[in-house]
Amino acid sequence: MERELVIVGGGPAGLAAALYAARAGLDTVLYEEGMPGGKAATTERIENYPGFPDGIGGVELMMNMQAQAQRFGARMVNAGVEAIEPGDAQFILQTGEGRVTARAVILATGVTPRPLNVRGEAEFTGRGISFCATCDGPLFRDRVVAVVGGGDAAVEEALFLSRFARKVYLIHRRDALRATKVLQDRAFAEPKIEFLWHSVVQEVLGGRTVEAVLIRDVRSGETRAVAVDGVFVYIGMEPNSRLVRGLVALDEQGYVITDEEMRTSRPGIFAAGDVRRKTLRQVVTAVADGAIAAVTAGHYLEGLRG
Fold first, then answer.
1. DSSP summary character for residue 40
2. Which pLDDT band holds residue 35 (cuts at 50, 70, 90)?
3. Exposure of 101 by Cβ count < 10 A (0-12 exposed, 13-18 middle, 19+ buried)?
4. Residue 35 · residue 11 · CB < 8 Å
5. Residue 91 and residue 3: Cα distance in Å, rounded?
6. CB-based contacts of 86: which residues, under 8 Å, 6+ apart?
7. HEC assignment per residue over 257-306
8. C-beta neighbour count of 222 within 10 angstroms
C-alpha cells in the first residue's frame, strides 16, 4: 500500500496534522494503536483550550477533532507502527495492517509519563490521578492534592497547584529536593505546601475517584494513609521516539529535534507535539505543531512532484 503522507500517532498533534493535510488534498492516513486522542483523551476535563469557556471533556474534544479530520478525507487506522525504514524517495513502514510506503511521515507519538507502578494507579488515572497540573489543576480548587516527585517539574507543579488547592502534599523519597534553589525557596515559603520526606506512594485508594494515598517511609518501612482528592505524578516523561532512533537527530533525552517548520534532520520526516523538543507541552501547542507539520509536509511533497 502506498500513501503520500502517513501520520503516526492520534493525539491532538496527529489529528490536527490529519485535518490540515486531508483538507489540502493530500492522500493521508493516520495510525493510532490506542484510543484516539492520546494523553488528552485521558483528561476528564480540559479547561484551557481556547473556544470552550466552560471547558470540554478530553474524550469529547479528541473525538470532535477526529471526526473533523475524517470529514475531509483523512483515513484513521486503529493499528500501531512497528518500524520506519528509509527507502528510495519514500519510507517503508511496518504496521499492524501490513507494509505501507509513504513519501512523507509525520511523527506525533507523544510522550509517556513515567508511572508509579503501584496498585490503584491504572484504575484512577483520569479519575483523580493526573500527569499535568496545568491541564487539571483548576479542577481541584479548594481541595487537597498530592504531588509525587522532587525535581523542577514536581516543584513547579506543586507551586502551580497551590493557586487552586487548599493543601498540597509534596511526596519525595529523599530528605532534600532535586529542584533548583529558586524553586525550592518558593516552595518552602508557600504555606499551602507540606513536604512528606523519605516517603514513596505504595497504593492509591478510593471509590469512584481518589480518596487517599498509602505512603511508606523508606527508612522505617512504616505505612500510613494520607487523605487527598487528587494525585499529580511528576517523576519524568519519556518521549516515544523509538521509531526514529537512528533516523533523525534526537536530543540527550530522546526528544526529536526539529526546526520551527517541524522538519527533522531527515528530509521527509517531520515531528509534531510532545515527542519533539519544545518548552511547552499542551493540547494547544500540539495542535499548532500538527498544523505546521502538515503544511510543511505538503510543501515537501509538492517539491517531489516537481
1. G
2. confident
3. middle
4. no
5. 10
6. 92, 247, 266
7. CCCCCCECCCCCEEECHHHECCCCCCHHHHHHHHHHHHHHHHHHHHHHHC
8. 10
The yes-or-no answer on residue 259 being catalytic is: no
In the residue annotation, 185 being an active-site residue is answered as no
- How many CB atoms lie under 10 A from the CB of residue 224? 13
Q: How far, in whole angstroms, is CA 281 from its chain's centroid? A: 7
How does pLDDT run across 188-229, given as a tens digit for each residue?
A: 999 999 999 999 999 999 999 999 999 999 999 999 999 999
Instruction: Cite the beta strand spans of the chain per DSSP E.
Output: 2-8, 28-31, 75-77, 81-86, 91-95, 98-107, 111-113, 129-130, 144-148, 167-171, 193-196, 199-206, 210-217, 223-227, 230-233, 237-239, 269-271
Indicate if 135 belongs to the active site.
yes
* pLDDT tens profile 70-123: 999 999 999 999 999 998 879 999 999 899 999 999 999 999 888 899 999 999
Q: Which bin fits 103, alpha (ψ -120 to 50), beta or left (φ > 0)?
A: alpha
For 296, list phi and psi in degrees, rounded to 5.
-65, -40
Active-site residue, from 27, 54, 135, 289: 135
Do residues 209 and 124 touch, judged by C-beta distance below 8 A? yes
- Catalytic site residue from 136, 229, 274, 289: 136
Question: Of the listed 88, 132, 175, 217, which one is catalytic?
Answer: 132
Q: Please tell me the distance from the alpha carbon of residue 108 to that of residue 190, in angstroms, as a whole number.
A: 37
* Segment holding 190, helix H or strand E: none
227: its cell numbers? 487523605
300/261 Cα distance (integer angstroms): 11
Q: What is the mean pLDDT of residues 50-78?
A: 94
Residues 244, 245, 248, 251, Cα dihedral to 10°: 120
Angle between helices 12-23 and 58-71 (to 10 degrees): 20
3-state secondary structure of 17: helix
